Amino acid sequence: MNTYGTGSVGGRHSAPPHSVFSNDVLALRPARAPDLAAENRALLRLAQTMARAPERLLQELVEELCELCDAGSAGLSLLETGQEGQEPCFRWVATAGRFNQYTGQTIPRSLSPCGAVLDTDRMLVLLHPERHYPYIGELADPVEEVLLFPFHQGEVAVGTIWVAAHADDRRFDREDARLIADIAQFAGAAVHASAKAAAHARLEGEARAAAEREVVELGEINRRMHEEDRGKAEFLATLSHELRNAIGPLESGLAVLNRSEDPDTKRRSREIMARQTAQLRRLVDDLLESSRVSAGQLRLQTTLVDLNRIVSQAVEAATERIAQSGQTIQLSLTDRPLLVEGDNQRLNQVFTNLLNNAAKYGRNGRPLSITVARREAQAVVCIKDDGIGIDETMLPRIFELFVQTDHSLNRCQGGLGIGLALVQRLVELHGGRVEARSAGPGLGSEFVVYLPVAGD
Question: Does the predicted TM-score (pTM) go above 0.90?
Answer without folding.
Answer: no
